[in-house]
Amino acid sequence: MSEEILRVSNLTSGYGKVTVLQQVSLSVNKEEVVAVIGPNGAGKSTLLKTISGLVRPISGEIYFKGKRIDQLSPHLIAKEGIAHVPEGGRLFPNMSVWENLLMGAYANRETLKSGVLEKIYQIFPVLKERRNQFARTLSGGEKQMLAIGRGLTMEPSFLMLDEPSLGLAPKLVEAIYEELEKLRGLGLTILLVEQNTTYALDLADRAYVLENGRVVLEGAGKELQENEHIKKHYLGL
Ligand SMILES: Nc1ncnc2c1ncn2[C@@H]1O[C@H](COP(=O)(O)OP(=O)(O)OP(=O)(O)O)[C@@H](O)[C@H]1O
Ligand SMILES: [Mg+2]
């Protein structure tokens, strides 16, 4: 049996008195790509924020490599090897590409292990070419690559991506998904949140469908592509 990396168990979470996620359970195995799809406001970003400790669960448990992490601070959760690339990337527009990458290592050059930047530049050569350019001057696709690159600076074993295709032209979406395929090849385990159902289900080994804060469907990526509910409501077929 494959090794379980992440287990979310009966997770209920939200903001103040507003409950967003209701009893969500899911798991991600080692070297798997798992997608969470669902409409606007379903709670996809809230799920990732709760896993990375930015939002505190109301009830339920989160385990990473067998260790309970749902009471840890975001900083300690990151140290366990979990990287969260937020929706829209949250880059520092007036810092260079290189400085943005350093910020991924908590603005501390010492925490950036030697050779890590070179590895990231190997995955995304365009970031090397543009390392001295302000982040705000990058194209949409390049910005997304920088956001992902920044997520890799702490050499995570588990990468969470929030809508990597958001706002990108179709050609760039394709380019980003080619990069994600490369990351999979490097042995990373990935949890991906997407509204672009077509690409997400194509890449994902397994996927969960989140509606109104609840998991309503789950299955293999290819299997869900054939599901009537998915075809009608997500793929427009
Ligand atoms: N900081 C916040 N305070 C209060 N409510 C919030 C906050 N962030 C999100 N919400 C609410 O939580 C619900 C779920 O939001 P969330 O961002 O998780 O959805 P999503 O599935 O990521 O949607 P999208 O596809 O539009 O990104 C929404 O109703 C949203 O208004
Ligand atoms: Mg979101």
Provide a concise account of the structure shown.
With 237 residues, the chain is of the alpha/beta class. The protein is built from 10 helices and 10 strands. Strand 1 (4-15) and strand 2 (18-29) form a beta hairpin.
What does this structure look like?
This protein is α/β, with parallel strands linked by helices and 237 residues long. The chain contains ten helices and ten strands. It has a six-stranded mixed beta sheet, with helices on both faces. Strands 2-1-4-5 form a four-stranded antiparallel beta sheet, covered by helices on one side. Helix 7 (170-185) links the parallel strand 7 and strand 8. The chain is globular, with a radius of gyration of 17 Å. The model has no long low-confidence stretch (mean pLDDT 92). Bound molecules: adenosine-5'-triphosphate and magnesium ion. The site of adenosine-5'-triphosphate has 13 residues, from strand 2 and helix 1.
